[in-house]
Amino acid sequence: MTKRKKAIVISLCISVLLMLAKFTAFFISGSNAILTDAAESIVNVIASSFAFYSVYLSTRPRDENHPYGHGKVEFFSAFVEGTLILIAGIIIIGKSIYSILSPEPLQQLFEGTLIIAIAGLINLVTGLFLIRTGRQENSMALVADGRHLLTDTYTSAALVVGLVLMLLTDLYWLDSLLSVAAGLYIVFTGYKLTRESVGGLMDESDLKLVSAVVDILQDHRADAWIDVHNLRTQQYGPELHIDCHVTLPYYYDLTRVHKEISDIDDLINEKKLRETELFIHADPCLPQCCHYCRMKDCPVRQEPQSKDFTWTIENTTRNKKHFENELL
């Protein structure tokens, strides 16, 4: 079993146990605040189950129907999880407002508070573990599940503080008010997660990742790589796909062009940002490139180098050679 699969199985088992514990706390106390936490635990179990399936599917090898692999399913998993969080938050807010208007007596509040506090600590440890593993394995599904558990931890911590206040002050109307506040936070978290997953499904650029790739190319730049442009990235689960255009001296033969492109491929992969597949289109240089070309002893140079471009996100992601950017 892979590291990703082990992590999500651990998350699923813990989610089931904590859901049972929180509902036990609700039944013995009758607290709406505790019910809020228990209801979110149902979402945790459903989301962890879906995340487990998505992690299993994303690790399957490429096939004829999925030439880029199955990694995109992790973004879909995160979208479903974010949607479930949103729905849970809205239901919690509705139930809490109803309870403000129709309050019910509370019982065994201390025992219920203790159960919620212990469950929150367990969720904190599990959530941090999932986020760390997800980042190591480049798994959106694990990171999303970890963030979900951290959200549960924060709401549990807020509820514990409120429940302790109720125990000390007998202000039981705080119960439903805390539920509303927790519900609003849950809705906000669900929105953020849904927004991020939609961005991944629509191949939204990860600017930090693109910046890291550009920095690697700039720091190890060969003289023959006259410019890089139209650089784009796509993420498929743990795999990264990059395509770009590289301007090379027009007099290079096919063997030399292949070597330069292979050097770029090796450079990106040896830095181990993540497993990366590159699609590089070679462009021939033009006379207009001479003034920023670094090639020494170039046999066809028409003017000396008078300018040097530092590769940045701005000039490498445009679909224009650097001299064309100067004309803008």
TrEMBL record:
<dbReference type="GO" id="GO:0015341">
    <property type="term" value="F:zinc efflux antiporter activity"/>
</dbReference>
<feature type="domain" description="Cation efflux protein transmembrane">
    <location>
        <begin position="8"/>
        <end position="202"/>
    </location>
</feature>
<feature type="transmembrane region" description="Helical">
    <location>
        <begin position="113"/>
        <end position="131"/>
    </location>
</feature>
<keyword id="KW-0813">Transport</keyword>
<feature type="transmembrane region" description="Helical">
    <location>
        <begin position="7"/>
        <end position="29"/>
    </location>
</feature>
<dbReference type="InterPro" id="IPR027470">
    <property type="entry name" value="Cation_efflux_CTD"/>
</dbReference>
<feature type="transmembrane region" description="Helical">
    <location>
        <begin position="41"/>
        <end position="57"/>
    </location>
</feature>
<protein>
    <submittedName>
        <fullName>Cation diffusion facilitator family transporter</fullName>
    </submittedName>
</protein>
<feature type="transmembrane region" description="Helical">
    <location>
        <begin position="152"/>
        <end position="171"/>
    </location>
</feature>
<comment type="similarity">
    <text>Belongs to the cation diffusion facilitator (CDF) transporter (TC 2.A.4) family.</text>
</comment>
<dbReference type="Pfam" id="PF01545">
    <property type="entry name" value="Cation_efflux"/>
</dbReference>
<keyword id="KW-0812">Transmembrane</keyword>
<dbReference type="InterPro" id="IPR050291">
    <property type="entry name" value="CDF_Transporter"/>
</dbReference>
<dbReference type="GO" id="GO:0005886">
    <property type="term" value="C:plasma membrane"/>
</dbReference>
<dbReference type="InterPro" id="IPR058533">
    <property type="entry name" value="Cation_efflux_TM"/>
</dbReference>
<dbReference type="InterPro" id="IPR002524">
    <property type="entry name" value="Cation_efflux"/>
</dbReference>
<keyword id="KW-1133">Transmembrane helix</keyword>
<dbReference type="GO" id="GO:0015086">
    <property type="term" value="F:cadmium ion transmembrane transporter activity"/>
</dbReference>
<dbReference type="GO" id="GO:0015093">
    <property type="term" value="F:ferrous iron transmembrane transporter activity"/>
</dbReference>
<dbReference type="InterPro" id="IPR036837">
    <property type="entry name" value="Cation_efflux_CTD_sf"/>
</dbReference>
<feature type="transmembrane region" description="Helical">
    <location>
        <begin position="78"/>
        <end position="101"/>
    </location>
</feature>
<dbReference type="InterPro" id="IPR027469">
    <property type="entry name" value="Cation_efflux_TMD_sf"/>
</dbReference>
<keyword id="KW-0472">Membrane</keyword>
<dbReference type="Pfam" id="PF16916">
    <property type="entry name" value="ZT_dimer"/>
</dbReference>
<feature type="domain" description="Cation efflux protein cytoplasmic">
    <location>
        <begin position="211"/>
        <end position="285"/>
    </location>
</feature>
<dbReference type="GO" id="GO:0006882">
    <property type="term" value="P:intracellular zinc ion homeostasis"/>
</dbReference>
